[in-house]
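Trying the structure run again after the queue cleared.
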Amino acid sequence: MNNVAENNAADFAVSHQTGNKTVQKWTVADIIALFEMPFSDLIHRAQTVHRLHFDPNEVQVSTLLSIKTGGCPEDCGYCPQAARYHTGVENEDMMALEDVVAAARAAKEKGASRFCMGAAWRGPKQRDLEPVMKMIAEVKAMGLQTCATLGMLKEGQAEQLRQAGLDYYNHNLDTAPEFYGEVISTRTYQDRLDTLEQVREAGMNVCCGGIVGMGESRNQRAGLIAQLANMATPPESVPINLLTQVEGTPLCGTEPLDDFEFIRTVAAARITMPASHVRLSAGRSQMSDTMQALCFIAGANSVFYGEKLLTTGNPDTDADQQLFDKLGIRPEGI
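Done. Tokens:
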């Protein structure tokens, strides 16, 4: 490796972040400049930064289960679980504890190190939280890391979840503030930030990212990354979702995002948040093995594992294992 290039990339990363603490703010212009780099230079910089913080041949594997599906009162334009859209997703009761535990056990046997539980709520009522906390405790007792995405949290709920054994709370910003109103009207950007603040104050890890390919501009993709990277402590996990278009949702029919633009987004996330796990999340079923390999080279080092993400498709575990074998990648902790 060219020593000058390596040193410049290292200095660039350290000047913006030490450990997982932001030292210097990233401007949207800074991040747009990353997007505009020649592709090979961008990937080289991202891979160099990645190697300073992670084993480049390890990937953190999570499994996501919908424990309460459908009937959500929100109007997120991408979501098939919104009650107001006709997508074929039915409103279902919360899963039984024993079924969730069985799913977590199966995920662990297939190599997952983290088990994520999602519920289609605007936010949990206390009566909802009680059974979820039992699920968290049981999954934690199996030796898995635990994650939940339950919507907006009320005062005191984050502390209850932490006490139950929750390691991570997922609450995505979805997009840049200036594009947010084009996608969602039933909750504000500040609502999302308030929930994230409660999670931090409770002492839990944050899982927070967004969705690209919703019709946003490159500047707005850069704006999302700036929001994440400039948090006082950037998220420990940063899911980068590619819009999965579902018939019946307002965003169905949006012009698909160029593959290389998605890879550039992953690289920009890695460079600006060097100590965070950057996760390939929704949309992987649309990606070729080659595209996913380029994403790993660009700094992605986490995936959702399993045939379904809440209600949409995902590569099955056998296909993922074959890809990992081709690339010489191993699940983290193995």
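The CA atoms of residues 68 and 94 lie 4 Å apart. Worth checking whether this holds up in the mutant runs.
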